[in-house]
Amino acid sequence: xxxxxxxxxxxxxxxxxxxxxxxxxxxxxxxxxxxxxxxxxxxxxxxxxxxxxxxxxxxxxxxxxxxxxxxxxxxxxxxxxxxxxxxxxxxxxxxxxxxxxxxxxxxxxxxxxxxxxxxxxxxxxxxxxxxxxxxxxxxxxxxxxxxxxxxxxxxxxxxxxxxxxxxxxxxxxxxxxxxxxxxxxxxxxxxxxxxxxxxxxxxxxxxxxxxxxxxxxxxxxxxxxxxxxxxxxxxxxxxxxxxxxxxxxxxxxxxxxxxxxxxxxxxxxxxxxxxxxxxxxxxxxxxxxxxxxxxxxxxxxxxxxxxxxxxxxxxxxxxxxxxxxxxxxxxxxxxxxxxxxxxxxxxxxxxxxxxxxxxxxxxxxxxxxxxxxxxxxxxxxxxxxxxxxxxxxxxxxx
Length: 398
Hints:
By secondary structure, this protein is an alpha/beta fold. The chain is 47% helix and 11% strand. It has helices spanning 16-24, 51-65, 92-104, 126-136, 155-177, 195-200, 211-222, 247-255, 267-277, 280-285, 293-301, 308-314, 318-328, 331-345, 349-356, 371-392; strands spanning 2-9, 31-39, 73-78, 112-115, 121-122, 140-144, 191-194, 224-226, 233-234, 394-395. The longest helix is centred in the middle third of the chain and has 23 residues, at 155-177. The protein starts with a strand and ends with a strand.
């Protein structure tokens, strides 16, 4: 079995050496190979405000070439003049697509691909923990690895990062509490999968950003996903506009006081999803009389009076119907519902989180505008989420 690290890199000369050092120091006897796609749009060479990034990519190349593990690193050139992205086909999603496709040319079905970012660090037993996870759970397609953003020491950066992480962890905790089949966090630096899993879904669909979310969702729809791993990753903490949504852009917006796209979803909305989950059997039987808000939203979204009717017609037993329901009502549909209804609630994020944590006895008033409070809240949520993930271990369809 060979382990392949797949790392997209753009403007990462200050960070990538630490990531490569982590790979080189792994406590694993098997073969490890690293693929790095240094990338940028071709037109950036002619844009005065972007040339510095192009030059930084050249520095990254020199760092990789001179690294102690350079003999095990393959560099995909998407940054040199004449080699960059053309037109709309650019960004981290296309870089990951290119990386996975190159690895696919030489890897075997049982080989493991570890999706990584060039500013992420991890402990020396990380690869070993991934391999052991797949060996323990031979029917899983992928692992959504736990994560933890280190404190940088820059108050503005840390405040924005912590606030965004609190948003992600609150969402994950509530999804776990309602036992959703899509209760995972999708981070490009925290995913591992078998090449056979990649092939099972027909490869990786490139998008400019959010590629990690859609990739895991595709995998989840066709098989089991592990949500716990004994080792975690520690992604970089900084402002970044390299992608269109995700941690970096969220932090930039948040630093400007705009968290509208990343609210603290109130628990009551998840309970409305849960009441539908609890009545899937009755939906299959066709004798559900109560009108549920979540179903009303879905009917409006799918522009139909009853989106369940064709599912009931095409899937003749309850097990098939349940899977078909969750395949249609996936993580994206849930997020769309939450965003829509949260806006209608018009409640303060601090109040929403305080309400969500009542049963956990947080014991302090929540203020999402104070750094010291954000640190305490984040670490408290980490404990809750970790316990839930350890208990759950693997996501599957009932």
